[in-house]
Amino acid sequence: MITLRSLEKSVDSPAGRIFLLRRITAEIRTGEFVTIMGPSGAGKSTLLSILGLLDGMWTGEYYLMGHEVHQLPPKKRAALNRELIGFVFQSFHLLDDLTVAENLDIPLSYRGVKASERQAIVADVLDRFNIVGKKDLFPSQLSGGQQQLVGVARAVVASPKVILADEPTGNLHSAQAREIMELFRDLNTAGTTIVQVSHSEENASYGNRIIQLKDGWLVDE
Q: Where are the alpha helices (DSSP H) in 85-218?
């Protein structure tokens, strides 16, 4: 599904060029549940942003389901993001002025799904995630755990091939964190490839493989 070859990311600073990622070569197979771990500043979130096609300023080769991402212009990368990827953020990133149902509708509208079809899909996901009673509420009316549950629902509403999650339980208490991780495990069991960034050994235990980063280098699996 995902193949990286000699991928590097650097930024310019007054002290010179600083590398955030160095010579990353790795493969993630379809149906895997992979955790990216490492100390702060290791490059974990940077790598996830590149995998999610949110960052285009890097060198090397990136293949995503047969697509040569490194050869694609920005518009085609954005289209690939919408088609294949669902993203779960630590800080939820819900749109505050939209209801839960409207937040779930957004990814479908970006894909050009007809309004009648979107309504049915959103209703199904609301039921699947047991948040039908929250559909008309705004994010500010939800607890942190409820907001993250909506964030996961939004990530899967368009049936992506891969879900990328950046510290998805970082702002949640332990019971909420377990609920989210069990949800990820269920999605993975159903066939969705999942790549998460986490500091938590407990969260990593839900997956089947760990990729370790240190100072931008891939150091161990």
A: 100-110, 115-128, 144-156, 174-189, 201-204
Find out whether 151 and 173 touch, Cβ atoms under 8 Å. no
pLDDT digits (tens, 9 = 90+) for 110-145: 888 999 899 999 999 999 899 999 999 999 999 999
The structural domain count of the chain equals: 1
Residue 221 has pLDDT above 70, yes or no: no
Q: E strands within 29-135?
A: 33-37, 59-64, 67-68, 85-88
Structure confidence by residue, pLDDT tens digits, 93-102: 899 999 999 9
- Report pLDDT for 216: 97
CA atoms within 13 A on the CB side of 89: 10
- DSSP state string for 146-180: HHHHHHHHHHHTT--SEEEEESTTTTS-HHHHHHH
Q: Tell me which residue of 63, 87, 54 sits closest to 7, measured CA to CA.
A: 63
CATH number of domain containing 171 = 3.40.50.300
Provide φ and ψ at 138, rounded to 5°: -95, 155
Domain range holding 40?
2-220
In sequence order, what are the beta bridge partners of 10? 19
Distance CA 124, CA 170 (A): 28
What tokens does 206 get? 């839900």
DSSP label of 139 = G
